[in-house]
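DM from R.C. (forwarded with permission)

"hey, sorry to bug you on a friday — could you get me a structure for this? deadline for the figure draft is monday and I only need the backbone to look sensible"
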Amino acid sequence: MDDFERFIIDVGEKALKDEPLTLEEAVGILEVPDEYLALLVYKAQKVKDKFFNPSQVEFCSIINAKSGACSEDCKFCAQSKLYKTPINVYPLVPKDEIIEGAYRGANYGANRYCVVLSGRKASPEEVERIADAVYEIKKVEKIPIKAILAPHELRGYIIIEAYTPHNVDDLIRGIKHTRERVQGVVDNSEIDKYLETKPVITSLRVGTDVEVIAGPFKGMQAKVIRVDESKNEITIEILEAAYTLPITVNAEYVRELKKGE
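My reply, with the result:
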């Protein structure tokens, strides 16, 4: 056994014992001659198998959400507009297509989803579309995110309301051009200027399930059967009534029920 073989075996045993390597040992791994690569890979596999169950594999699904026409000239990349590569060229796909890709990946067992865009960076409009899609995608991955805000004034940033910083890290993992999560929290008073209160009626449609939150039928569930935006009124049918009971109420008297409520 020569010095390189002994070195590889020794550092491998340290790693298996979860002992940190020294800087000299880490650099030494990089300097191992190519003829010892097989032994190095073998020991690395042993370390991997100890700390990561080899019977468990993570699957990542990706979508080429924006293809070609990149202004960069990376010679290894087919997306550059400077090269005559026979690829499909198209702008950022619609939000629904991004969401559909996430559901499709989840159905095939993927537990990661990567949204890939060509180009150096996303425009504010693209960021907003992706943020909207990510909010829906998080439902697939069951990440507890409460809200996502992409103000045009904060170019290149999105604000995420979550229970823990870890939830945010899980959400942005795999999204190209996302550099990192900015440390710290944002006070509500700092984002009030970016928020716009919309009337409840703008989100209500015929067939929407709602809960009455004011008036004599408070607490009852109903279904919207007519929407009159000019009067800010809706007609609902109380689901718990023994007979059909259409009632016209102010749209502010109800809240939309989310799936599962």
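R.C.: lifesaver. The two ends are 67 Å apart (CA to CA).
me: no worries. The longest helix spans residues 124-141.
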